[in-house]
Request: fold
Amino acid sequence: MGDEKRFVMISSDCHAGAPPQVYREYLERKHWDLQSEFLESTKASQARLATTIDVFGVSKRQEWESLAEVEAGGIQGVWDPELRIRELDREGVGAEVIFPDGPNGNPTPFGVGFNRPRDQAPPELQAVGAHAHNRWLADFCATHPGRHAGVAIVMAYDIEGAVKEVEWARKTGLFGGVLLPNLHLWTDEPESFYHHPRYEPLWSVCEDLDMPIHTHTSSPHANYGDIPGSRWMMSIEGYWNANRLFPFLVWGGVLERHPGLKVVMTEAGGGTVPYLLWLFDRMARDRNPEAVREIMSLRPSEYWARQCYVGASPPSGRMEVESRDAIGVRNIMWGSDYPHLEGTWPRSHERIREMFAGVATDEVRLMVGGNAAAVYGFDMKMLRPIADRIGPTAKDLGLALVTAVN
Amino acid sequence: MGDEKRFVMISSDCHAGAPPQVYREYLERKHWDLQSEFLESTKASQARLATTIDVFGVSKRQEWESLAEVEAGGIQGVWDPELRIRELDREGVGAEVIFPDGPNGNPTPFGVGFNRPRDQAPPELQAVGAHAHNRWLADFCATHPGRHAGVAIVMAYDIEGAVKEVEWARKTGLFGGVLLPNLHLWTDEPESFYHHPRYEPLWSVCEDLDMPIHTHTSSPHANYGDIPGSRWMMSIEGYWNANRLFPFLVWGGVLERHPGLKVVMTEAGGGTVPYLLWLFDRMARDRNPEAVREIMSLRPSEYWARQCYVGASPPSGRMEVESRDAIGVRNIMWGSDYPHLEGTWPRSHERIREMFAGVATDEVRLMVGGNAAAVYGFDMKMLRPIADRIGPTAKDLGLALVTAVN
Reply:
């Protein structure tokens, strides 16, 4: 039937976060004063950061803010579940994966998530903040079961605590998996790096409970200063840091030991993946192959193909699509980055047309939804009728003239 | 005439360093004890490092060490100028660019150059060590004028001192230019990053004196620990760190202000350059174009094409060659990496055949020598007759069947 042709669109990269007074309800009373103090003490650095990383420019921001959909309050879907589902429906997005980082004054408690380490509270309070956000997110996602895959923030200082958080998150319905801090968040010592054996229980629980692990572009740890160039360097280095998860996991043997562990690097400049795969395969062949064999039985690119994914959001999405033969058509998942300015929202169809121009319809179907359905285990029986109602057709996405493969 | 067809081969990546007793002659007497103490204190960490980064494996090392050319002592050309010129001639290499890092017990004084920061002496002694190495290198290069382009080590803590070192190096005949420490060598604060205005006098003197600036893969600053995977991660992260020079210079406006400054990233995994150029051009278009225009009048890829180069040594050389349309045929310079095990020496012709298989002869001619001649200003009138005597023909490099372009 004709409806069968509508796309099940799943965004692999969306954001949500609540206002401080809402988050407060998810914190224990003994942390209220500390959270108020934290907000007060980081106000200046948050404001400075907002200026420094005003990466889009006044005219672009004004243009964006004047869009009818933005003016109509769609951005408030960052914490209002009804406004959010309205925007998902309007854009024909059946389901989504939700990271933290709600813009417009909804900072995660104690700065966990995407803040620079220097703008976060001490480790023990970060774990408190993460759990408060995760509890709020679980309630938020429960408003429309099956459509929101919430990603739990898991700090990895204390592995025992991290394992418990993953177990709690899965049980509570956060099937989006786990957001890990990017590398280099702590020290330059071995325990900071994801090939260290101390993380083993964390990888095991994520594999056993089918919780994909993620890095996502975020503020790098360095202080580039308020000098020309810094605002772009922060973005560029943020991509790099998120991308470093794959090398540490492949060379640390984590992907060998955990074939069921799914690894996603989101909004991380996946255009560099073909280079990494080429280099790593060559290194595995030429650099101490005896020692490589002790760590891995496959080639690095085979681990990638089996269990690693790119969350492909603008601005690098088009390059990821152009490199799909090397990255793998089944390893790329489109993300709208809702409600961030740099994302495809509120004009996702238009932006998808640009991003996937010239690509075969069946490939697009995988990249805009089919792959994410498989990675996160969305219930397609439940999403199919929703897509039949709201999903775009190939023609809506400008794909009508492209011949399908397979 | 037929000899005209012989290639002028110039290696953009070679290494030299002297034994401690030779370096001592280039240190002031007051530093002798400090250098002995430094050598003693780093002996353990050097040995541990040698184990940790034994990246090639026992069998490969044994195979390499049993090659006739290696057995014949060719590796001693790392400090013996006559053995070195014998090896250059035997391989048909007319000229070379020389970095520090002589293997086999020839550590640079006070650990400057490619050591991890934690295995280097304090900043003031690093400058002393750099100057001692540079003085030794100048004498070494003077043994065969025009064939060795020595690269001076320039520490960039103290910019006034750095400028003086560049002036001294140029005057003394080190026309290879300047080796800069990779980023993140010091702190995570703004003055560590190459887009900071404090470096401006250094860029000016390098531009004015036509001294190309370099980063080269080296040990990253982090301590990955003696755990599985670390030896490869050190290589991978070393590439990354060397490659970061370009983004900082382009986004900091350095390449706009210094159109004559030449920038070379050597043995740094240049296969990632096409991704960087794509991303940066897109960012310049989409991310605060008003602010971008205050920094640069060209697209990032145009600065690259005009003044940036890849020193293409194994293991990533083949990928750099495959990406030559995106990187630029005139922006790639082959390097033998003599006398490192991972390089093409002592079988450079054989390795060049692999690296350039299927590439048009005229393009190979640029990449194996022509480009380096232009970048470093080698005296081609002097090198032509040497190449007529020792240089390989297209047939020697397996290129006979490929149609030339232009």
Notes: Chain A touches chain B through 62 residues (CB under 8 Å). Residues 2-390 of chain A form a domain with the TIM Barrel fold (CATH 3.20.20.140).
